[in-house]
Amino acid sequence: MTKIDLSNFNFSGKQVQAVKELVWELMAEVEGALSFVTTYDNIKVDTEVGFIGEGGLVGRASQGCDPQAQDYNVGTRKVKWEPADWEILLHLCYTDITSTIAAFDLKNGLKKPDLTGTDYVDAIVTALHRSIEKFLWRFIWFMDTDAANIADGGVITAGVDTNYFNLIDGLWKQIFTQVTANAAQGLAIAANSESTKALQDSELDPSDVKALLYKMTRVAPIVLRQQEDKAIYVTQSIYDAYKESLSDVAVAALESREENFINGMPALKVNGWDVIAMPMWDEIIRAYEDNGTTYNKPHRALATAKKVLGVGFDQVGDFDQLDIWYDKDTRKVKIEGMGNGDAKLLDPSLFVAAY
């Protein structure tokens, strides 16, 4: 059953505040997950997308009379979308709030069980939209069809329901798989291998981070380095360490100042690349990939281009739409959301990852 925890407030008639007078906790901003990827519409079923690539060599010495045509082939490849369906289904019962401060929201007579249009439901919907945005971050980056808890050989924090993580293989799963196939696309961050959470954080050296980011720009594929939308997406921990490495005024003035914003996020520069903090990565890793002693690769960086990161939906604008209604048969208010989608590295060769 869905409800707001009102147990912290003693119910004593009209002396108690109403739900609408409660103040929202201070919470970190949740940037739009779709701001950093390329979205595709109408991905309702398994769908193949074809890409045309480079042609072969041309330009040979003239053959004079009766020349023979040369072979010329244009490369192609395909990406297959395999969208997974998701749903949100919540039930609210008026009897859950009859002895709480939310009781003043209740209607009268036959309409008493109908909570639609109340401050109580409005508060739940507000919280739900925030949760949906966080779900989208998990969906795009941290899903794994083989997701398992720590005790079962996985990386998901003990006690966390893996059904919230196993819809598709998200971008990080695909990145790890690609680096296994081509080790040159992966770089190691030594601090991730430390034996405790405290050491993982304290051993992240700013000068090492700066050197790492420069190296990523140097070893990135030439095609990627030529893209206008190239960027290095990093955990907040990497971003903060790099910013600290630029504390020298002369260096900072020459190399990078935090004066431009990318999709609402402050961005630094390294060797002509934007360095963009992705604090939701940190939040998800530290909340849901914690074995009790260490975090799973808490410091990460990904050099790529927005057009490489694809997310397909049946309808892009509908992923956070909710249907809210009162069901007389059950005397409950029901909230439902549905959709489907998939995330894909549209060209798995065009990234360098550090973790």
Label the structural class.
alpha+beta
> What number of structural domains do the residues give?
1
Rounded to an integer in angstroms, the radius of gyration calculated over CA atoms is 25 Å
Unreliable stretches: 13-17
Tell me the number of strands: 14
Strands of the widest sheet, in order across it, are: 5-14-10-6-9-8-7
What would the average pLDDT be, to the nearest integer?
89
Could you walk me through the main structural features you see in this protein, from its secondary elements to its overall organization?
The chain is an alpha+beta fold. The chain has one domain (26-37, 81-354). 24% of the residues lie in helices and 23% in strands. It contains 8 helices and 14 strands. The protein has helices spanning 119-142, 171-181, 197-202, 206-219, 222-225, 236-245, 249-255, 279-288; strands at residues 38-40, 47-55, 74-81, 84-93, 186-187, 230-234, 260-262, 265-270, 273-277, 301-305, 309-313, 323-327, 332-345, 352-354. A 7-stranded mixed sheet has the order 5-14-10-6-9-8-7. Strand 7 (260-262) and strand 8 form a beta hairpin. Helix 4 packs across helix 6. The protein starts with 37 loop residues before the first strand and ends with a strand. The model is unreliable at 13-17 (pLDDT under 50).
